[in-house]
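=== How it folds ===
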Amino acid sequence: MVSLAPVAPLSCRLLLACVLLAVAVGVSGSLSGSGCSVLAEQAVMVFEASVMKREMGEQDSELLFPLLHTLFVRHRDDNDVRFRLLIDIGANVGRTSRTLMDTFSDVACHDLVNAGAVGHLKCRPEATSPRVVAFEPIPTNFELMVNHATRCHWTEAGWSGLLAAVGDSTHNVTFYTSGSAGDEQASQDAGASYSNAVQISTMVLSLDDLLFGNPALPLHTGALPVFSSESVFLLKVDTEGYDYGVIHGAERALRERRVRFLAFEYNTKWFSAERTYSLKDAVALLFTTHAMVCFYITDSALIPISSKYWLPNYDVRRWSNVFCGHVDDPGLRWLVRAYNTRKVEGSVSVRWHCFDAAGGGADRRRHSGRL
């Protein structure tokens, strides 16, 4: 069960962060302040080795999905279905949504039912099923994603999509895009996009407005799902440099612990259009205000980067991904240990259900993921 206790005092958060750091580098037993310093040095060594191997540009949050699914199933089996929202912000044509659906949902069950392969088969009741909600502001990308969702029966298994961006508040904004389907570089910054970019006007929503309700929400975003009684198990953010704004727009949700896990992208686009906030600012905000500890995702380990364990070495301004959870969440401690002690050289085969990024026929290829 996720603790809903008030945010712990800073001293307690530091101690809990130290315990998580010990888990990250594989140490057990009691720890002193000097012991934490030694652990921090070990973490830096792991991090620098990852940078040397250029792992920072290769690992994203999808590596954690199987372990997150294990935690999700535990809660479902305990009849705790509050945290069943999986939110995909910056969904593009739906690649992450595809992985979320394949990992968490009963989409394979619905495939069999729709094909008439198993007449008596019953899929998981809707009340205990995960709900994947995908946000994409670029119409051409959104159209491709919806086509995939229709063809692959995602909507029947709990998926919904909204043609909108997510940010720090609810307002209109101009996006700059190539106009091509599948554009992954569309941005609110003209300088960070294309020299001959196409301009489109898009609605930006805040996560707080969506979770807690806002009568000013525009109708043209489509049928807004009802979130009031549900909480977010995983909030995945990939907004081409505006991830910090999304975090600000989820301030109440984070404060009231309506978000259990957070994953966001960090790259040079954070600093375009004269924005000055950094990764250090983001992890400091999450730790001091919301008692969340953050980790760099590398192939070797999850490396803690919060509070006094932050070092200038960690400000690697190239494509990388960060994962965060509450310091007093036993599920986070289990996940860190499980990820950092897994056999990296092993692999499991994952079937990508019915997906083709180009919008053509179903893609039944198999992908080997290191998990």
User: Anything to note?
Assistant: The chain has a mean pLDDT of 73. The first strand starts at residue 83 and ends at 89.
